[in-house]
Amino acid sequence: MPVSIRDAQHSAADRAWIRSQYGEYLEDLSRLSMNTGVFPAAGEFGEREPELMARWFADDSSHPLIVLKDERPIGFALVSRPPRNQRETVDFRMAEFFVNPKSRRLGVGRDAARLIFNRFAGEWEVTEFLYNKPAVAFWRAVVTEYTAGRFKEATAHGEVRQFFRSGAARATRS
Fold first, then answer.
1. Do 125 and 90 meet the contact criterion of CB atoms below 8 Å apart?
2. Which of 28, 68, 77, 156 is least surrounded by Cβ atoms within 10 Å, i.e. has the fewest?
3. Is the pLDDT of residue 167 over 60?
4. Phi and psi at residue 83, to the nearest 5°
5. DSSP strands (E only) in 57-122
């Protein structure tokens, strides 16, 4: 079951696939946020949803990716670069990450995260909503394994954040 990632920036089919999954992603976040209102319910943005998704593909500081298992799309990720005035702390943020429920707990998300971290070498920040317990547990485990425990974690304003170096940056700056 090989896992891979593919740049979705220039593929109409990949962009359409991400859009088709986005409602399920929002529903997942809404359910896991314990109805706090932090995450929108699917369809809440109405006619603006296509506009929001279009930004992913138009912004040169974002990198939309498709997660593939055996060459079939099963998830997506959005890696973003923070605004230029904030780049002194991190190079990349995991802005969005979704694996469809049928493909979870098979190591696919972990393998995809590792591929993404290696592809974008540098200083990283991964953020989870504090009450999304499955996401907090997933990212803690993934980041701990990836960094061999060499990361910092902070909790503030209802978010858990992991900070670490990835890829070549990790090897040269450790």
1. yes
2. 156
3. yes
4. -55, 150
5. 62-69, 72-80, 92-99
